[in-house]
Design a protein that fits this description.
The chain has about 150 residues and is mainly α. It has four helices and no strands. It is elongated. About 15% of the residues are buried.
């Protein structure tokens, strides 16, 4: 059986068009700023890695803090690339949709906006899970330390 896609007719008023055009400009600006932030994070990560390699190993100390900072900053730089990419695609496709009055291109633009929100939704869930794990770990360490203090 073939499924057909239902088409909803939706008219965009002048005020809605204006709001979408404004959203597009801010989305483009935020995407560019996020790309710049990604580049800065990668540069900071490489800087911390390079700086960590210059510090001679002292007694009991290793180069782990520099490598850890490098991994964190580079990881964040890579992770933030994706929402910037989705936002840039949303902005560019929305611009095309508004200029050509093409609903298929508007649909494509909204798909990238959906990816943007999905990314941040999943990131929020992961952040909440890490926070809960950190709380459980901290309570466990506190209980263990309290039991061994006697």
């Amino acid at each position: 059986m073939e499924q057909s896609e239902q088409v909803y007719r939706l008219e965009i008023s002048d005020q809605s068009y204006y709001h979408l055009a404004t959203i597009r400009k801010w989305a483009f600006f935020l995407a560019i700023m996020t790309f710049i932030g990604c580049g800065m994070m990668l540069l900071f990560g490489l800087f911390f890695g390079f700086l960590g390699s210059l510090v001679p190993e002292a007694e009991g100390l290793s180069q782990l803090p520099g490598a850890l900072m490098m991994a964190i900053y580079c990881g964040m730089g890579v992770a933030y690339f994706f929402p910037a990419y989705f936002l840039l695609n949303f902005a560019s496709r929305l611009k095309t949709a508004l200029n050509t009055h093409n609903s298929d291109v508007l649909t494509d633009a909204l798909k990238y906006l959906k990816y943007e929100f999905t990314f941040f939704g999943v990131a929020a869930i992961v952040g909440i899970c890490f926070t809960l794990l950190a709380i459980v770990f901290a309570v466990g360490v506190g209980i263990f330390a309290g039991m061994n203090a006697n």
